[in-house]
Structure formats: structure tokens, C-alpha cells
Amino acid sequence: MTSGPFAIDLAAVEAAARTIAGHVLRTPQTVAPRLSDLTGATVIVKHETMQATASFKERGAANMLLSLPASERARGVIAMSAGNHAQAVAYHARRLGCPATIVMPQDTPLVKVENTRSHGARVVLHGETLAESASRANEIAAQDGLVFVHPYDDAAVMAGQGTIALEMLADDPALEVLVIPIGGGGLCSGMAVAAKALRPDIEIIGVEAALYPSFTNAIRGEDAPIGGPTLAEGIAVKTVGRLTLPVVERLVKDIVLVSEPLVERAVYAFAAYHRSLAEGAGAAGLAAMLAQPDRFRGRRVGLVLCGGNIDARLLSAVMIRELEREERIVSFRITTSDRPGLLGRIASRLGELGANILEVSHGRLFLDVPAKGVSVDLTIETRDADHSHAILRALADDGLAPRRIDARDHRDVSQGGRTQ
Hints:
The chain is of the alpha/beta class. Helix content is about 45%, strand content about 20%. It is built from 17 helices and 16 strands. It has helices at about 10-20, 35-40, 55-65, 70-75, 85-95, 110-120, 130-145, 155-170, 185-200, 215-220, 245-250, 260-275, 285-290, 295, 310-325, 340-350, 385-395, and strands at about 30, 40-45, 75-80, 100-105, 120-125, 145-150, 175-180, 205-210, 255-260, 300-305, 330-335, 355-365, 375-380, 405, 410, 415-420. It has a six-stranded mixed β-sheet with strand order 1-2-10-7-8-9, with helices on both faces. A hairpin with a 4-residue loop joins strand 15 (about 410) and strand 16 (about 415-420). It is elongated, with a radius of gyration of 25 Å. It starts with 9 loop residues before the first helix and ends with a strand.
């Protein structure tokens, strides 16, 4: 029991730190110069992706499992999760000789499903949402006599996650703001309790995916729609925690909602500028800083890189999409007379202009192309948007009349800018 108004207090978090010592990694915390340049703040990153299962979830799972009597561990545990909690429970359950069953939504990224199985857990794929997975997990728990390990609405789990704040403030007492992703609220509530007890003046900012504003709705009394495909599936939670909500409501100053393009940009920024893999939920804190730069500019901000389990193909798609947004990858079509050596001349000209050709398609059979004509579709890589515009203007000056064929097809490429 705690003596305060919440399910946990500082003493519970400090006890959790002692319990999990030696079972989880005390992760490094580093200044991120490139991310600081990007945001205008001094960005300090806590690398929870260096845990054995690449996420902070190990802290809460280890604390909860270690708190169980040996008889209950021997009987087995069950959890529902979109991935990181699943892997954490499976990993530490195997370490402790505890059978584990994990119920996961059917559309959980394959990398998380396979990683969970690799840790020895029995995986049950059920439902489209965490709520449906939770319902099935409760049925199995009652049927098989298993202990349910909740991903966030559990005091031991909350206390375990709160140990991150103890380490962050011990390593950098000058932190002014902590920006923390919120799914069900276990991480944010645990960290908020610990941080505000140690430093009442520190500011706590939560982050939700714009498609899943569960805490925003609950705290502000709003009814914004919840649901949809998100890159930040780790925080795509429709139901707030009964234990976590009062903490977030009292100790978190504000919640920032982040759009999908901003989450993608944050994942890209971690990879390109900080050389770190971040899944969508793991990058949500940085996405919030990109969404509201004025709030954080000039301040010393702590980010939790809380998860790095992103599918390689999805990461590749995100990286390419961001390069397209920055116009460092552009696609365009040239329609002209079919003359011998045309492709060679275009390729040579692009080489002179400093472009790298990624893809080329040569077509004569389209009905919008004259019978004696040809269309050439090209995708090129450039240094930046200005370089792309200069190349397209140069091709237009050469009489080749390039036309953008991607999402920015409304641009007047002959002038290298937007059509007004």
C-alpha cells in the first residue's frame, strides 16, 4: 500500500529499482546534438532500446514477475500486448522458469510476434484491438488458472517503469522537461510519480498518437474519435488505465497529439541524425517536440527512446517517404520524340547536374503519348529540395518539359516551385 493519492509513490519506485537491479539494464543517457539542432532544445535521450528486448517494458514486467510468489510463477502467467510488453514478459518469464502465454492483436507487426515466440512464449493471435486481446486473455487466465500481467494498469508494472525517471534525474539533475509517450499510461504515470517527487518543478509532457487520444478525451471531457492504422501501434490504446489516469491527470502538465507524418519524421530523425532505431511509439516524444517547437526551444529536454522494435521493411518505407517529403527523392516524366540515344543523353545530363538515377521506365505504348513519341519516367536522388528544383528547371530549359508524377504533381516544375 502507498501513503499517497496514487497506486504507487516514490518509495514503491525506489523499491522496484532495487528489485530489478541485475535483471534489466541501466541504460545509457546521451546528449543528442543533431536532434538538438533540429528542435532548438538541448535534447537528452534515454536509450531504453538497449534492453534485451529493445524496450522499456522489461522494467515493469521484471518487477511484477519478481513480486509473484514462486507457486504463482510456476503455474504460469498470461499477458495481452501489441508487442513490447509481450516480449518483455516472455523474456523474463523464461529467465525465471515461468510459463508464459501472450495474446496479441492479429495485425501486430510480424517482428514482434516472432520475437515473442523466440523467447519461449505461447502466442495467441486474437482480435483487432488490444481490448479484444485483453478479453481473450482474461478468458484463458480464468480457464487455465494463470496470473494476468497487465501491460500498464498494475502498481508493480507502473513502479518498474518509473525507475527510468530515477536514472534520468540521477544522470542529469538539470533536466527541465520530460516528454513521455502515453499508451495506457504505465510509463508516463510511473515516471511522473518519481520525477515530481524528486523534482516538483520538473515539467511532464505526455504524447499520444492523434488517432488514439484516449487520455486527452478522458482528461478534457472530449469525445474525439479513436482508432485507425498508426505507425505508433505501441501507444494505440483505446482504454485508459484505472490506476494510471489519476496520475496523468494530476502530474502531467499537458498532452501533445502527434500526427502520422510527424511520427514518421521522428523515426527518420532518430535513424538519420542520432543513428538509433526507433519504432513509432519510441519516437513519439521527438514527434511532440517537432509538433510544438516553441514549447521546448532553449530548454533541457529528456526523451525516452522507449522502443526500437520496428520492422525492417516498414523502416525502409518510412525512410524513403521522408526523403520524398524533403524532395531528396523525386519522380518525373519526360514525354518527347523517340530518338536513338535519348536515354543516354538524359542520363548524361542528369549526371552533369549531380543527380543519382534510382529508377527509369521507358514506355511507347501509352495512349497519351504520340505514336512517334516516348515517355520516360525517372526517379532521382538529389542533395536537397533546392537541388531538385534546379535540376527540373535545367531539364525544362533543355526543352525536355519534365512533369512531376508523385504526390506533388501540382508543382510547376519548370519554375521549381508551387503553382499559385
